[in-house]
Structure formats: structure tokens, C-alpha cells
Amino acid sequence: MSSSDPVRRGPSIPKTLRWAGLGTAAQGALALIVAVILVIRELAGHHEVGISGYGTAVWFVVIGGAVLAGGLALTRGRRWGRGLSLITQLLLLPTGYTIITGDYLLEAGLSRWLGYPIIAVALVLLALLFAPASTSWLDADDLPPDA
């Protein structure tokens, strides 16, 4: 390919896929923030009996980093980010339900109000991932090989 040959570009990334990527990236960033909070709490001397703050923080960094990378990949039109986003949303649905039905996280049933937004965001992102514009773009044959 010479320098005068036109660059072959695939179709533009649909807004539904970009929004799904941004939402997924935000979820990954939130997990990284939780990891930082866990480390700060552990350094401040707060210790739980049943868990390790540092170990849980490492888990949040690994998972949150992967989810953040998948979300950013979707915003850039990389197909591999769809799988990470899809799995994340499918795992957050039962997580939100567990938070709603169990009053063990916060006092006086306040955890219920944490579970509803988790489920709502997961459902919105699933709808964006499965929107006709998103699925037709992701299934297109004229995308570059690294998409």
C-alpha cells in the first residue's frame, strides 16, 4: 500500500455503542475508586474480620481495570469490548437484586436505594448494546480487522 492510497475506513460508530462504552467505562472507573477507598480505609487502621481490605482492593483493580478497558474499547469501535460490557451488566443485575432484598449493607433498608440504580443502569446499557444500530454495526463485514 503506497502513501497515496486512500485509507479504508469502516462505518462510523453508532451513538448507542459509544454511550454503552461510556457507561461501561464509568462502571470500571467507579470500581477503581472503590479500590482506592478500600486501601485508604485499610491504611487508616480500619480492619474487617472476614475480609482483607488490600485483597479486595486488588480484586477491584483487576476487575475494574478490565471493565474500564472494555468500555473504552467500545467507544473506539473495538468489538472485543462488547463481551466485557455484556458480562458486566449481566452480573450487575443479580447483584442489584441481592442488594435490594438484603438489608445487611446499610441501616434501615437504605441499601434498597442503592440496588435500584444498579439494575437501572445495567438494563439501560444492555438496551444500548442490543440496540439495532449497535448490533448491525458490530456485525458488519466492512469493519477493519482490529475492530
UniProtKB/TrEMBL annotation:
Stretches that traverse the bilayer: 20-40, 52-74, 86-106, 113-133
Keywords tagged on the record: Membrane, Transmembrane, Transmembrane helix
Superkingdom of this protein's organism: Bacteria
Listed name of the protein: Integral membrane protein
Organism of origin: Gordonia phthalatica
Taxonomic lineage from the root: Bacteria, Bacillati, Actinomycetota, Actinomycetes, Mycobacteriales
